[in-house]
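Much of what follows relies on a compact textual record of a protein's fold. With that in mind, consider the following protein and its fold in C-alpha cell form.
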Amino acid sequence: MEYLEILKYVTPSIVVLVCAYLILNKFMKREAEKDKLLLQQKQADMLIENRKQVLPVRMAAYERLVLLLERIEPQSILARTVESNMMAIELQKALLVTIRAEFEHNYSQQLYVSDSAWKAVKDTKEVIIQLINQSAQTVAIDAKASELGKRIIDNYASLKESPIDGAISILKQELASTV
C-alpha cells in the first residue's frame, strides 16, 4: 500500500516532467531552426553586399584589360613608340618592352576575370609579340623603323581574325554574363 501512495504522488510528477521535456524540446528545435534561417539570411545579405562591392572592381578590371588590348594593337603601339631616326631593331626592342610593361601593369587584373578570359588576354599578347618578332626577321638588319612598322601592320592585317578583337569579344561576353 505504501507503493500505491508513493505512486500517487510520483506519477503526476513524472507526467509533468515528460510534458515539460516535450515542450522544451519542441521549443529548442524551433529556436534552432530560427537561428539557422537567420544565419542563412545574414550569409545571403553578406553575399549580396560583397557582390555590390566587387562588381565595380570587376568592371574596372574588364575595362583595363580591354584598354591593354587596344594599347598593344599594332597601329596603336606603333604610333606611340616609333621615333624619327629609329632603326628597326630599336623599334622591335621598344615594342616588346612596351608590351611587357603594359601587360605587367595589368597583371593583377587576372584576379577579377575568369581563367579563360585571362588566357585570351595572355594569348593575344603572345600573338602580338610573335608577330613583331616574325616581322623583324623579314627586314634587313640596318632597316629603318618605318619599314618594320609597315611590315608589322601588313602582317597583322593579313591575319584571318584579329586576335585583339577575339579577346575583347571574350571579355565583353564574360562581363555581360557577370552583370
Q: What stands out?
A: The two ends are 81 Å apart (CA to CA). Residues 137 and 148 are 9 Å apart (CA to CA).
